[in-house]
Amino acid sequence: MAASTSASADTGTGTGTGATTGPVGRPGVRGLGGGRGPKGLRGGGPWRRSREPEGAPLSGAMRAVGAERLFNRVALGVLIALAVLWLVPLAWAFATSVRSSDEIATDPTAWWSGSPTFAAYGDLLTGGKLPYWYANSFITSALTTVLTVLTASLAAFALSRLRFRYRRPAFLLLLAGLMVPPQVLMIPQFLALQETGLLNTYWAVVLPQVPNVVAVFVFKQFFDGIPEELTEAARADGAGWLRTYWQIVMPLSKPAISAVTIFVFVWAWNNFLWPLLVVTDPEMMTLPVGLTSVQDAFGIPQAQLMASAVLGGVPLLTVFLLFQRRIVEGIAGTGLK
Amino acid sequence: MLAPFGFFYLVFLIGPLLYLLVAGFFNTSLVKGGLGEWVGLENYRRAMSTEEFWTSLWHSMWFTVLTTVPLVLLALVLALLTDRFSQGRWFFRLAFFAPFVLPSSVISLMFMWIFADQIGLAQSWAKSLGSETPPSWLGDPDWAMLSIAAATVWWTIGFNFVIYLAALQEIPRDVHEAAALDGAGPWQRIRHVVVPMLGRATTLVTVLQLVASLKVFDQIYMMTGGGPDRATEPALLYVYNTGFTEGRVGYASTVSLVLFVVILLISLVWFALLRRTEKEG
What we know:
The structure holds 2 protein chains of 2 kinds.
Chain A: H1 2-12, H2 18-21, H3 27-34, H4 45-50, H5 58-97, H6 101-106, H7 119-127, H8 130-161, H9 167-177, H10 186-195, H11 202-206, H12 213-224, H13 228-236, H14 241-252, H15 254-270, H16 273-278, H17 287-296, H18 302-322, H19 324-334
Helix pairs in contact in A: 1-3, 5-18, 7-18, 8-12, 8-15, 8-17, 12-15, 13-14, 17-18
Chain B: H1 3-23, H2 42-49, H3 51-82, H4 89-97, H5 104-114, H6 121-128, H7 141-170, H8 173-181, H9 186-194, H10 199-214, H11 218-223, H12 235-245, H13 249-280
Helix pairs in contact in B: 1-13, 2-13, 3-7, 3-10, 3-12, 7-10, 8-9, 10-13, 12-13
């Protein structure tokens, strides 16, 4: 972007020398084109015009390069030290999980095991409720995700394309919902589910998580970017709104769908407070809630506690590694809205 | 087409919110069912005169201060440093961001082991740094909140880090080069050129962090259960305890509502700030 503006500025002068002087350009030539650059920031005109490259003392430049190098070295050192520190808890949890109880008892803070064993993992996966928790977490998160994507995208489509009477109030009501932290609603939500007799079912975990206002706004923003002509053409061909949504808009919205899917899934998977309230049956618990019952029970070997932490972390770490770019871009996008 | 979402929205968001407003005026109880008797402002009066209510609010705010400051500043520093290196960036992003995707119970399990008395890593490190009798990190009322805050910083810094890193990438290379050619050293460039351009990201990160920290529940519930001696009980845990453990639904509704208003005020300040920075930009 910046390169193309400066190039056009150079050719715009019409002298023909702009191309041969390269990116630095001659101050005079640059000055002519400078006014056309957006906001003057990208073109970089102003400062270049003001300084004289030939007149700058060479020693100063060399000192600057030295300072730069030193700064980079220190920065790299600090970063690596902190990154290693950041990996310590994960590494230590894993190191503990492959040690035997005797080893942990004699030297609890050692990093290496003389005879690493995966017995703790075996015990958890065969003897405990962990397989249930995996399944429950997967089912409830997947259900939440599907319902959220469908309802949120439908609502976003209505807000983006339909012209109905209470559109503006509906929009404002939704916007207000952004400010309600669901956690403060735990008591009435719980009472509502108790009334309907849904406690200890998947639906109790799933349903209250479905109204996700953020998802509606993500979809709406994306739909607003789809040209009106496309949907109008479909309408002119006789397609109803529902068909236009399903056959025209949704297939074009794969990036938004995948972003919402990943985020809602991770969100639902990590939700703790809500499933803690509505599920008391150990076989219906989600993974995060189930793990606390491991923690509360006495006499569980430390290796097993850490193995359950590792096993609890593995699914989402895998998701993260697989979709690293998507997730990071999605979060970065919140800053640009 | 708005109907399916609208249904869930009304049933699980607007409805409960209205219920909080109403139940706050009744002595609703979990066991008896129904709304119970009208008590007027009694719940509010009682909350104002109950010490646990104030201390729990204070704990949420103290936790918010303890986490927001490092989570914003350290994330900024990490992003500024990482931004200098195009190679190896994936490694730093992995190290700092990976913990963020983990469930709170995994964090709690790991840090309860790290902070464990006698056998934990934290005490052993403190000893090797010269402390004869390192504190009981989660068992000492003076240290428990700090320890939980430290674990939280480790856990969630990746989110802010990624937002800052993206904001830094928005700054055109020319700006760096320009300042460098003007003779600004790396440190001056960061202070006078780069950081001022991050105002928008900083507002965003700070307010998201404030709101998230005020809602703290999970890791405190698991790591200390609000103890020792209620020294770490945050507002949401107070709601949980009064509402579900003691069954005082009306009173707990009042407390929820107060917490909601606090969070709402902060969000509104955010919108005001954001609009102002937008106008300036």
